[in-house]
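Structure tokens please, single chain.
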Amino acid sequence: MFSPSVPTRSGPQCPECNEALDWPARDLPEEHILKCPNGHALCSMGDFRLAAREMALQEEFRLTRDGARSHAQRRAVDCPATRVPSMNSPCMNQTSDSSTESISAA
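Here you go.
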């Protein structure tokens, strides 16, 4: 079935021995060196935190970009430029009923 050299767990692994890595404790100081279960040095806790922040920011940027793109595509489908939107269309900027009141009062 599986050979011992093939990792059976997905996720981060030691680059030297392919041993599965777990999340480090939160309260470790920046200068603490993280090691795999077999003792191979990986990086400092400060480097780990920096890499984690960068990855989180990249993911947030990707989600924001993809969300904006998805929103723009929905708006294009809901509001095609070839037709005039109706008053009930999501394309109309319906701020309040005050504009309707001023028209009916006139």
